[in-house]
């Protein structure tokens, strides 16, 4: 990925916002278990940071995804993971399908305010029995008059206690699980929505997370994003940008933690020398830095191949899955190793490494677990279990015979 002056200016603007408007308040928001989403998002919207890749006619910048990656990387300088995650839901999880497939009317009503920072939004896919297994979603929307009437529940919804609307994946027919789902924009003040259940999490403490119950919730059918029955496919497309965004946000935070550890171990004395003077310690820090640089290179390569338009969706899905898999595993490796070098101080709740240790553990679970990423990668490599190989061969033979 070629990093231009324009990329660097966006990076600097975002990083300055993080340092001036987010980091001074992180401890307060972490303790409260919620961030003031509307206040923060409005400031970001005024700077044009919420619509980097979104259409110009709805308030966005209309830039390619390489700029979003620079934005995400700069957000990683936040001293917690919860706030960048909440922002990422607004920019890269709840709005990509709406921007790409939504009607002009729907974009004016819902996308433009999200880009301006006038609203806070959520993506509502997961359910208690359907996390990484997106096809297992049970929430159902039936048609009645000019409305959809929605019943069901959603679990682990980021920004869920304060969002104004959610891009929700629901079943709209009884057909095959990959062909019966649709994305619908659901106003969160609609009658029949209960989102009072705020979830208590190990990490990402400043990000509010809700369980949402829907009982006969009426939504106009014009709130359908794109075509009915295409929701699963749209969501799979949204996942690619979500995974790239998530990988990019992890990079600078790990760099910063490594540097903080160098500074701390250089000052901490034990047995007549600094901890950093031990060859194992500084060699290990060099290894960890190398791992993070490798993830950064993979993210940049994936971004370049994505924006080039020269590769198949399957190839991009493979690379994006590799990015998510690698940042999750490297984050776990780095934070665990650094905590050891901080000793007892690293085990304290408010220590930056301890916070990152808790926050980054989600990366290998949320947005598709590591095992899902490995399955996507294997499929792209042509590696399938014997049963699936047999079924694929039978399907190919039937198609040829027809």
Describe the overall structure.
This is Citronellyl-CoA dehydrogenase. Its cofactor is FAD. Keywords: FAD, Flavoprotein, Oxidoreductase. GO terms for molecular function: acyl-CoA dehydrogenase activity; flavin adenine dinucleotide binding. Residues 4-118 form the Acyl-CoA dehydrogenase/oxidase N-terminal domain. The protein is of the alpha+beta class and 402 residues long. It folds into 3 domains: 5-119, Butyryl-Coa Dehydrogenase, subunit A, domain 1 (Orthogonal Bundle), CATH 1.10.540.10; 123-229, Butyryl-CoA Dehydrogenase, subunit A, domain 2 (Beta Barrel); 232-387, Butyryl-CoA Dehydrogenase, subunit A, domain 3, CATH 1.20.140. It is 52% helix and 14% strand. The chain has 13 helices and 9 strands. The chain has helices at residues 5-22, 26-32, 37-46, 65-75, 82-93, 96-101, 104-116, 231-267, 279-308, 313-342, 352-360, 370-380, 386-401; strands at 121-124, 140-144, 147-158, 165-171, 181-187, 193-198, 209-220, 269-270, 273-274. The strands form 3 sheets. A 4-stranded antiparallel β-sheet has the order 2-3-7-6, covered by helices on one side. A hairpin with a 2-residue loop joins strand 2 and strand 3 (147-158). Helix 4 (65-75) crosses helix 8 and helix 10 packs antiparallel against helix 11 (352-360). The chain is globular, with a radius of gyration of 22 Å. The mean pLDDT is 95.
